[in-house]
Amino acid sequence: MYECPNCGGNLKFDIPSQKLKCDYCLTMKDPYEVTKDRDAEESNVFDATIFTCPQCGGEILSTDTSAAEFCSFCGASTILDSRISKELRPAHIIPFKQTKDACKSAFIAHIKRSPFAPDDLKDEKHIESFRGIYMPYWSYDISQQGPVSFTAEKSYRRGNYLYTDRYTLTGDINARYHNLSYDASSSFADNISEQIAPFDTRDQIDFTPSFLSGFYADTADVDDSLYEDDARALANTASYGGIKNVPAFSDLTFKSTGSLDETLRTKCPAPKRVMYPVWFMSYRKGDRIAYATVNGQSGKVAADIPVDIKKYVIASLIMAIPVFILLNLFFTIRPRITLICSIVLSAATFFIYLSEIVKIYHRDKKDDDRGYLYQKTFDSSAELKTKAGKKGIPAINKLRQFENAGSGLKLPGFAGSLAAMITALFVFIWNPVSDIWYYGSTSLIFLGILFTVTGIIRQYNILTTRKLPQFERRGGNDNA
Questions:
Q1: Which runs of consecutive H residues, i.e. helices, occur in 302-367?
Q2: pLDDT tens across 253-294, in order?
Q3: Interval 347-353 mean pLDDT
Q4: How many other C-beta atoms lie within 10 A of the C-beta of residue 273?
């Protein structure tokens, strides 16, 4: 911990002043001027690493990737120096710019745009639970220098003839791309990190551990090679697009000449470790957690917001009333046509359910999170090698597995639409004389469709309440 030189209290980073501040005597210190007299003591017992609080001697609970934590007994902010020493030390950091109050205001404004959000998410006790965490990123610098050559052509017609002129374009390129950043934590979902991006790297400064005081911090557990191709591709696309957009080349069609890496002479030195600020809020519901993130620099919000089924059904019924009145005033629909329309609607709902739930299945399994998949491969390579020889599970099997694991419903969500289609086809083929059969079956069909729609919402809510215990942290500088 960083002790106040005047009273011995815990110095913590103060966002408005961008300095270390003592909560007791209000002393301010430059983060680059302070040093630690005492550090968390590290010991190894039974192959487990244990950190001891330098202030009270209590054991500090931490994950394997934590770089800054809080003592559960006395609340002291402690930097785990062994996690950020030598080769693990970040080169740069963007300190928190958004205070907790500003973060809460940004989230409240965001949640107001979601009319079907549960009231619990608007509860002050949940909004108050935002915690600041410095997340690890890999920062890539790309350079492109030297002579380059492209082939292009221009076609035009004169009379009955089509002419094609071919060109070889040569020149020199001198392009540099700095601080192309990708999150380096397997526990930080890629889609969330992309939603709160970008970070303005002009605020990036040299790292010193004192910036972490008062906040949590994680270290990288994803290899730096994972996103190198992405950084190269981003730079290549930008440079190639810039060359093609030169006014003199506007009427030319460029032809592929092989790898852009080679053509543009793209080079990528070893990336740098950096830390960027993120506010996290977790909301527990049963054994699942919904969470929201706020960019600690810009205040940009990304949140997976569950849908309140009760609010959705009430709003749908209210909207259905004027639609029903308008249809009755201006249209006359015969019973058989009504039945056909309901068959089409139930079929559409059935296939939408299948396609959407398969997408949700893949996202819940984090198939689109490369950092998570990398760490999973690293931790259980033997298991993945066994799975590699298996063919993909059919979509319907994935659907059944997902529903059994998540919702706990005895009937799958698509059963409503399926039963509705069977009922409608039966009545359509039977072709009864009385209209009551048509209207009765149509009512049952719409109930089946409603069952399927609510099933989609339930599965969506499972997706938005994922198990992320590493973000359910307690402590931190609540007055930041």
A1: 309-330, 335-364
A2: 998 777 899 999 999 999 999 999 999 887 766 666 777 899
A3: 80
A4: 21
Write the single-letter amino acid at 197. Answer: A
Residues 6+ apart with CB under 8 A from 294: 98, 103, 106, 107, 130, 196, 278, 279, 281, 300, 301, 302
In 3-state terms, what secondary structure has residue 303? strand
CA separation, residue 12 to residues 94, 301, 374, 477 (Å) = 16, 25, 34, 7
Is residue 120 within 8 Å of 283, Cβ to Cβ?
yes
Distance CA 385, CA 383 (A): 5
Nearest to 363 by CA among 462, 458, 219, 453: 462
Residues sharing a CB contact under 8 Å with residue 71, sequence separation 6 or more, in sequence order? 53, 55, 56, 58, 60, 78
Distance CA 2, CA 77 (A): 8
Euclidean distance between CA atoms 231 and 233, whole angstroms = 5
- Residue pLDDT, tens place only, 310-321: 888 888 788 878
- Cβ(132)–Cβ(216) below 8 Å: yes
Q: Identify the bridge partners of residue 199 per DSSP, sorted by sequence position.
A: none
Helix (H) or strand (E) holding 204: none
**Cβ neighbours of residue 259 under 8 Å, at least 6 residues apart?**
none
Query: For the chain, give me the number of helices (H) and strands (E)?
Result: 12, 18
List the one residue out of 262, 67, 235, 237 whose CA is nearest residue 140.
235
Kindly write down the DSSP assignment for every residue of 59-128, as one continuous string: EEP--TTEEEEE-TTT--EEE-GGGSSGGGS-SEE----S-HHHHHHHHHHHHTT-TTS-GGGG-HHHHT
Give the span between the Cα atoms of 56 and 53, in whole angstroms: 6
236-239 CB contacts, 8 Å cutoff, 24+ apart = 236/260, 236/261, 236/264, 236/266, 238/175, 238/177, 239/144, 239/173, 239/175, 239/264
Half-sphere exposure of 234 (CA within 13 A, CB side): 16
Contacts of 421 (CB under 8 A, 6+ apart): 343, 346, 347, 350, 445
CA distance 227 to 222: 9
Which candidate, 229, 218, 286, places its Cα nearest to that of 66? 218
At 410, give phi and psi (nearest 5°).
-75, -35
Q: pLDDT value at position 96? A: 95
Q: What is the pLDDT of residues 218-235, one digit of tens each?
A: 888 888 888 999 999 999
Residue 407 CA to residue 458 CA, distance in Å, equals: 7
